């Protein structure tokens, strides 16, 4: 399976709590729900198209517990997002979680990158990371992410957990596609290309 890192981001890179003020209040975060005003039909079509390629999901512990709390309550079999999140195999990377009740779930502990690499060898199309910014950034740094999909909302949140922290590992990316919804969300798909390239700008000397 290809490993896909899929994130909802603000313009300043915040990934925490896009869906509601109560979604993720860890570390005292009080600005959740920043994505909701920018949802429209085009946004949902993109999300449904992306999630339609998933054959399994991968989460960090915090995101897993939030999703496991909320998504089982959304049990409409005709909902293409809820039906896949609730029905497909799920993996959670955690050194502290003893059990996972959102079936079917497998807990990955110990050497998580090595275990994720093994999961990628299983047959299927995509193993998708949703949320789980710290896990996603660490697997990108480990060279395991095959594609990065970002939905970037036109809002500056100002605080909160970011997908790419200041002390993160540098990475080069190649843009594969880009589209914008009527509400201003930019859907961007990238392919990791290894370490970033650097250069020096030299202006042409005046004639």
Give an account of the 3D structure.
The protein is α/β, with parallel strands linked by helices and 207 residues long. It has a single domain (2-19, 30-194), classed as Dihydrofolate Reductase, subunit A. Helices cover 23% and strands 25% of the residues. It contains five helices and eight strands; from the N terminus they run βαβααββαβαβββ. It has an eight-stranded mixed sheet, sandwiched between helices. The mean pLDDT is 94.
Number of domains: 1
Radius of gyration: 18 Å
Summed over residues and divided by their number, the pLDDT gives a mean of 94
Flag low-confidence runs. none
- CATH superfamily grouping: Dihydrofolate Reductase, subunit A
Q: Count the helices. How many?
A: 5
Return the CATH topology: Dihydrofolate Reductase, subunit A
CATH class annotation: Alpha Beta
Termini distance?
55 Å
CATH architecture label: 3-Layer(aba) Sandwich
Strand content: 25-35%
**Structural class based on helices, strands and sheet pairing:** alpha/beta
What distinguishing features does this structure have?
alpha/beta, Dihydrofolate Reductase, subunit A, globular, 207 residues, 5 helices, eight-stranded mixed β-sheet
SSE arrangement:
Layout: E1 2-9, H1 41-51, E2 54-60, H2 61-70, H3 80-87, E3 90-93, E4 105-108, H4 112-120, E5 126-130, H5 133-141, E6 147-152, E7 172-180, E8 186-194
Parallel strand pairs: 1-5, 1-6, 2-3, 2-5, 3-4
Antiparallel strand pairs: 6-8, 7-8
What's the short version?
By secondary structure, the chain is α/β, with parallel strands linked by helices.
């Amino acid at each position: 399976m290809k490993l896909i890192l899929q994130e909802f981001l603000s313009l300043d890179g915040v990934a925490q709590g896009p869906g509601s003020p109560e979604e993720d209040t860890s570390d005292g975060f009080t600005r959740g729900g920043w994505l909701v005003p920018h949802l429209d039909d085009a946004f949902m079509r993109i999300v449904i198209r992306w999630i339609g390629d998933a054959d399994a999901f991968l989460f960090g512990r915090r995101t897993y517990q939030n999703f496991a709390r909320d998504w089982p309550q959304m049990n409409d079999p005709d909902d293409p997002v809820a039906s896949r999140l609730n029905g497909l195999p799920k993996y959670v990377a955690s050194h502290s979680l003893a059990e996972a009740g959102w079936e079917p779930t497998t807990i990955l502990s110990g050497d998580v990158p090595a275990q994720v690499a093994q999961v990628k060898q299983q047959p299927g199309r995509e193993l998708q990371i949703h949320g789980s910014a710290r896990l996603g950034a660490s697997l990108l740094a480990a060279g395991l992410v095959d594609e990065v999909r970002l939905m970037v909302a036109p809002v500056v949140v100002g605080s909160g957990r970011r997908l790419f922290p200041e002390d993160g590992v540098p990475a080069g990316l190649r843009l594969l596609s880009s589209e914008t919804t009527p509400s201003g969300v930019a859907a961007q798909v990238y392919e990791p290309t290894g370490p970033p390239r650097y250069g020096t700008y030299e202006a042409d000397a005046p004639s």
